[in-house]
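Translate sequence into structure tokens.
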Amino acid sequence: MGAWGTAIFSDDTALDVRDEWREAILGGLSVEDATARLLESFDDHFGEDENTEKVFWIALAAAQFETGRLLAEVRDRALAIIDGGGDVARWREDGDDVAARQRERVLERLAAKLRGPQPKAKRLRRTPSLSVAFEVGDVVRVYDDDGESEALVLVVGQTGSESNPVVAALDWEGGAIPDRGALARLPILPDPYAPRRRLLIDVFTVSKKQAFGPHVGEVVAKRVTPSERVDPRYFAHSMSWGLVASSVREAQEHARERARR
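Result follows.
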């Protein structure tokens, strides 16, 4: 788990908290029961990293606030953490003072919201999915909107409440499609914005025109095992199919540039 930005939900743990919170409310749980479920779900992770518990309470307060369901005890716990410096130290420990100052401002703005009037409870709805179902292990050749770039991605999972595929970007140079064994050996590209992470993308579809089809790409292999273990819950980017190919190519260029240094 880790952060790739200073925003409240630019963090694996924070994203999981928000997703599980919304799922619990959509599932009909009361605010109190949903909060208890999340505490039980994340309790085992609190001892892994001193920042995990801080991020949990900050993200839960933000998620409850934005849905109009902020519990007083969650608010007070998050404010106490923010008043104590929050998790800013993790950026300073990495020597990134600019990001540390940005995180401080983010937390200050959140604290102001939490101390202010709470919005009315919002009715949450699931957005009907227009995604095509894929199987984990499918290798998909995708094209960008202008047809100038193509890439291979491997389906490694899907988002919990929808059928959006989560894909890993494969380091493929183009040309003939390798056989299944060779596909399994292709490295997964690093995220150009967080090189210690693998590039995992949640691919969404918001209109019928964006739905997967021959104009977007094709499944070229099935039952392929990735060259390294990845967790599809910890994707860092969400985009439509039309942007995937160019994003993978950008990641390749960044990887080549880092290798030349």
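Note: The two ends are 27 Å apart (CA to CA).
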